[in-house]
Design goal:
2 copies of one chain form a homodimer. The first copy, chain A, has one domain: Winged helix-like DNA-binding domain superfamily/Winged helix DNA-binding domain (Arc Repressor Mutant, subunit A). Chain A is 62% helix and 8% strand. Chain A is built from 6 helices and 3 strands, in the order ααβααββαα. The termini of chain A are far apart. Chain A binds a DNA duplex (30 and 30 nucleotides) through helix 1 and helix 4. Chains A, B: One of its GO terms (molecular function) is DNA-binding transcription factor activity.
Chain lengths: 154, 154
DNA sequence: GGAAAATACTCAGCGCACTGATTATTTCTG
DNA sequence: CAGAAATAATCAGTGCGCTGAGTATTTTCC
């Protein structure tokens, strides 16, 4: 008694959605490279030479998590990590040859997987699906980063 | 070059959504009890005496994860765990007094948090949001559990 | 130019999530 | 009834994700 219906709880649905995706990724894309690892690789293919913090910002991972993901990609030889000679605090990252190849290979599989994952939705529904999730996620992330310190704000 | 747009990747969006929710939960609901822990507690309030495996099935957690979540709730004294005298393999679970009180308290806060989380969406959009996510998640989970062994199937 | 503040990264610690292997118990079947 | 199969839980191992504390380096400002 007094229990709630979890199917109206967005957090619970988000978790289930993410788990379902995780499993599908594992069977259809790769057992080695994870989805967050692919996201990092993807960012570095687009913008080689980014520093670690910026990559984390791009893919939505905090400083600690991005460090671990990168160290795994580094260990597998998929990216190069060098100290910025201009600024000794930064690590500059770029994909290796193999990193680029891996990214290309997984891009194809990922597209296939997305088709299967989104199969239950019509084309119109997919658009709405992306839009709604993105708006909710953006708004919640906005609550976290209280708004960039704009001139004349305190 | 050749990089994809992650904002059209449902897995990436799902992860971001879940992370955003995690942060909001932490600030608005509880720093002690997590969302999965609340889900377990919620299930046990509704159906006290369930075994561990069934609870996991209800909330969508695999055998290993549910074991850890339950051991934490047990350690905090929020549930009782006893061996089923009828079937020595099973652990039967029920919330303690404090578990019920905690659940009641968090139910209120969770409702408030959901309001904030879903604030960017209109009432109609929320309905669609739930429906779309649920359909995608259900379908993907269905791929995993290849369909219950119905009579006359192989 | 040197102390203080800011920035990038690392480290320890906790919790969720999965797989594969192992153990204990029950059920099924010859 | 005994051996085999199924079931519930546990354990070891890997990876994502966060916070708080600590280190190194650069920038800011008196």
């Amino acid at each position: 008694m007094a229990a709630v219906d979890l199917s109206t709880h967005p957090g619970h649905l988000a978790r289930r959605l993410q788990q379902a995706h995780y499993l599908l990724w594992n069977t259809m894309v790769s057992e080695e490279i994870t989805s967050p690892q692919f996201a990092v690789l993807n960012t570095l293919v687009a913008e080689p030479g980014l520093d670690q913090r910026t990559v984390g910002e791009r893919v939505g991972l905090d400083r600690s998590t991005i460090a671990e993901v990168i160290s795994r990609l580094d260990r597998r030889g998929l990216l190069d990590k060098v100290r910025d000679p201009q600024d000794g605090r930064r690590s500059l990252l770029r994909p290796t040859e193999e990193g680029v190849r891996t990214h290309r290979r997984l891009t194809v599989r990922t597209a296939r997987m997305n088709q299967v994952f989104l199969a239950p939705l019509s084309a119109d529904e997919r658009t709405v699906f992306f839009d709604l999730i993105q708006r909710v996620a953006d708004a919640a992330e906005g609550l976290r980063h209280p708004a960039e310190p704009v001139a004349g704000r305190r």
